[in-house]
Amino acid sequence: MARYLLTRLGQALVIVILVTLITFVILHFLPGGAARAILGKEATLEQIAAFNHDMGYDRPLWEQYALYLQRLVRGDLGYSFQLNQSVAEAITQRLPKTMVLSLASTALAVVIAIPLGVVQAVRRNKWPDYTINALSLLAYATPIFFLGLMMIILFAQVWPLLPPEAPQGFTLGEVLADPAGLVLPTVTLAVLTVAVYSRYVRSSMVDNLNENYVRTARSKGLSEGRVIVGHTLRNGLFPVITLLGMYLPALFSGALVVERLFNYPGMGLLFWQSALKRDYPILLGVTLLISVATVLGALVADVLYAAVDPRVRLKASRS
Amino acid sequence: MSLLRLVDLSTDIALRRGAVHALDHVNLEVRQGETLGVVGESGSGKTMTVLSVMGLLPPGGRVVNGQILFDGRDLLAMAPDELRRVRGVEMGMVFQDPLTSLNPTMRIGAQVAEPLRVHQGVSKAEARERAVEILRRVGMPRPDKIVDDYPHQLSGGMRQRAVIAMALIRSPRLLIADEPTTALDVTTQRQILELIDDLRDEFKMAVILVTHDLGVIASRADRVAVMYAGRVVETATTEELFRAPRHRYTEALMHALPEAAQGREGRLYSIPGLPPDLSQPLTGCRFAPRCRHATDACRATDVPLVRAAEDHLYACLHPVTEAVTFAPRGAGEARPAAASEPILSVRELVKEYDAGGKGRVSAVAGVSFEVKAGETLGIVGESGCGKSTVGRLVAGLEEPTGGQIVLDGTDIGALDRRARRRMHREVQLMFQDSYAAMNPRMRVDGILTEPLEIQQVGDPAGRRSRVTRLLDQVGLPTRALERYPHEFSGGQLQRIGLARSLALEPRLIVADEPVSALDVSIQAQVLNLMRDLQSELGLSYVFISHDLSVVDYMADRIAVMYLGKLVEIGPASQVVRAARHPYTQALIDAVPSPDPGHAPSPATAIRGELPSALNPPTGCRFRTRCPLAQDICRTEPPLEGGLHQVACHFPLREEAAAARP
């Protein structure tokens, strides 16, 4: 198991480095440039050249990248002149807020999606299945910004039940002190996830309900509820575990839109604003973080899988 | 007194339009302490009958008529909760495929004891104790350890024991076993069937044994019901049924067995056509369209069951009057040995697989044999003995770790890649599951043309006429060319598979379990066809099968493999009727004979399971299970003899004089 983990971590490292390289190259071929963005329209060419020289932006790309990696190893993600703070600091301030949003919406989605998927599988090709299927297709096809806007219009304006804006607190504690403000962004982000998860749960449960072991369970005279909850559900949820790991980073792209929409000061909003301002160090830092989250998510999913599925557990301990 | 009685039971399976009438007025009874065998081909309704009793019908399935009387009470009139209790406590069921009938993520003990926990509210600790106890009773090795294992850690035979334990823990009064040993090796099959017999006596249970295998029925059942197309066509005591069958279908089933072939040159009787489509309205005897004795009366009138003797009913207007005879063992005579050059010669073939740091799996360990032109070599052995690996190596699908494969005088290992690819023409494969071995999105013409295109044989027009001729050779109409694999039945698919392997005019066909998935009557059709093509085209076969009676019928010579080693090889009649290796004898004795008078000798029975091919036993690999093993068996016995060779320090008998060169 230890060897397996080490191999996987090694692979993860390679992937992360590749991602930083690609991001680095793309950012540096974008038009404009950091100097113009920071020094403003009035800056002379000499000033820009001097800035680029100071920052090392006039050196060959590979040298810049080497320097970047060198700093990265020391834990230095760079410095944002526009925010006037280090990238690490900017991220650590906002990351918890995005995590609260992502985790809350994932938890909500899982809690809703699993029963939906199970109901669909058990009532397969009957009206509950068709209805849920139609709704989840609709949710699937709705752009998240449109959904968020509709949420604001409906639940903050037509029926003013909830605030239209997310909590604006600076610290995590302040944010959590205003749970009502979190409801709309969390629900908006969860709707798409429910659609994805319930479809997985449905198809996996349908497959499992057709398995011979389910027939064996029925032959013991078990009630239908016990057959489904006691025997089928556990086997049927395995794909969801993989999905959880793979999907967590994907939530970030949703968070990008939702945070902008609800003006929630998390990573998504930070990324959005930095992209408009060409704040390269921040963009690089956030991309790095997401790529790390992606590979770790996949790794965690595999380890979780091994923890719950005895068949995989055995293989993992062998290799 | 009867424990279970089915009265006019009819079951439908709903389709999108209409329904399949899977059971049509089935009447059966099972008495306490007896074993009722239910036999028939796929689609005969034998499984639907027991699923109706257990309430486990597939989606859309529904009992539409009749009664299921269990101990005098009609199950169909019971409240759902009560019904579940009766089925969960008083009945137990064992399924066909032990590999998939256990929950993969639940410990064996929890699954086995679940009925107790649910129906009797037994505590967790006591349930575990009872599970260990019942696992021990069904002959599970180390039950106190197994109880906490997961299914994937167990072999097929052990899993089937676990399923049986699960059925027995409730001390049921009725045990239903649906093809309980079809997925298992003969040696394991014998152990499982004996176990069910013992337990029946011990628990005073009634047993319903559903199987397609007449041999299993003959050796285990007290009474037999023969089903065809959703109806019971004949019931009798086992002895009476095999001595004097009355229904023409029963007779045809018996005639189609390889054991019934008269002499080695005899053709098998095969039942023409296919069973009827049960979603259509049917009149008359349902077997009439395939029956050689059918008259207009058979087709026009419904044929009722009539009484032939006290316990013998049949539904046939032209019943059998003469007795069916099985070729007594030892009656076959050897075909004159083909004296030609070997087409295939395998020398010291070795195949090992890397087992990820834990050593190497020795799949094939120094196997040598020859196949002459026009000859059939049968390879038999339990699953995991390496017989299929040998086939794949010979066909060039895998590279050997060591040894030589000489094909038509050319050492394949010495050829470069291009030349080797050309050599592939000479050897073709035929698979067990032809459907899985065909691209479902390709039409039959594409499937048959592809080998010709790959090997660049002929022009498009030439290929087309070749393909048409191939279909003709395997007895399929030309219009089959435009159809897709899923439109064909199992027997037809095997014909197409055979046509594909014939496309390149090979000299050798490696057939890996080519008839194992087929019903007896269809099996006979395919075996006959393979034999006809052999004499017509001068083909050689390597015929790999776990089924000794089929190999005995097909092969000129038989090679017996055990755990990667060749333990015996010789003329078929010699190997089967005068086996020299204790393992061969055990295999032969484990095959249930369709002759009820034939009792297997318990002395030769082998117990336990095939050892792991990872670090196999040293010396003779069979010694860990051999009743005759001595210290000397730690050294490897050489394969010795004339035509009939054996690798054993204590061969059971000397080579017969006829076999000496």
Please give a structural write-up:
Chain A has helices at residues 2-29, 34-39, 45-55, 61-73, 87-122, 127-141, 144-158, 172-176, 179-209, 212-219, 224-236, 238-262, 267-276, 280-308, 310-318; strands at residues 79-80, 85-86. By secondary structure, chain A is mostly helical. Chain A has a domain at 94-279: MetI-like (MetI-like fold), CATH 1.10.3720. The radius of gyration of chain A is 24 Å and the shape is globular. Chain A starts with a helix and ends with a helix. The relative contact order of chain A is 0.14. Chain B is of the alpha/beta class. Chain B is globular, with a radius of gyration of 26 Å. In chain B, a hairpin with a 2-residue loop joins β11 and β12. Mean pLDDT of chain B is 88; it is low at 328-334. Chain B has an 8-stranded mixed sheet with strand order 6-7-8-3-9-10-12-11, with helices on both faces. Chains A and B meet through α10, α11 and α15 of A and α2, α3 and α6 of B. Chain A: The chain crosses the membrane at residues 12-30, 99-122, 134-159, 179-197, 236-262, 282-308. Chain A: Keywords: Cell membrane, Membrane, Transmembrane, Transmembrane helix, Transport. Chain A: Residues 95-301 form the ABC transmembrane type-1 domain. Chain A: One of its GO terms (biological process) is transmembrane transport.
Task: Give the structure's gist in a few sentences.
Helices cover 80% and strands 1% of the residues of chain A. Chain A has 319 residues and is mainly α.
Features:
heterodimer, A: 319 residues, mainly alpha, MetI-like fold, two-stranded antiparallel ribbon, 2 strands, 80% helix, B: 661 residues, alpha/beta, Rossmann fold, 8-stranded mixed sheet, 7-stranded mixed sheet, 23 strands, 22% strand, ABC_Ni/Peptide_Import (chain B), cell membrane (chain B)
How far is the N terminus from the C terminus of chain B?
A: 62 Å
What spatial order of strands do you see in the largest sheet of chain B?
A: 6-7-8-3-9-10-12-11
Largest beta-sheet characterization of chain A: 2 strands, antiparallel
Q: How many helical stretches of chain B?
A: 20
User: What's the average pLDDT of chain A?
Assistant: 86
- Counting DSSP H or I runs of 4 or more residues, the number of helices of chain A is 15
Oligomer: heterodimer
Shape of chain B: globular
Flag low-confidence runs of chain A.
Answer: none
In terms of structural class, how would the helical and strand content of chain B be classed?
alpha/beta
Which word captures the global form of chain A?
A: globular
* CATH topology label of the largest domain in chain B: Rossmann fold
Broad CATH class of the domain at 94-279 in chain A? Mainly Alpha
Helices and strands of chain A: which structural class? mainly alpha
Report the largest inter-chain contact. A-B, 23 and 34 residues
Distance between the termini of chain A: 7 Å
**CATH homologous superfamily placement of the largest domain in chain B:** P-loop containing nucleotide triphosphate hydrolases
CATH domain class of the largest domain in chain B:
Alpha Beta
Strand content of chain A: under 5%
Give the ordered list of helices and strands of chain A. HHHHEEHHHHHHHHHHH
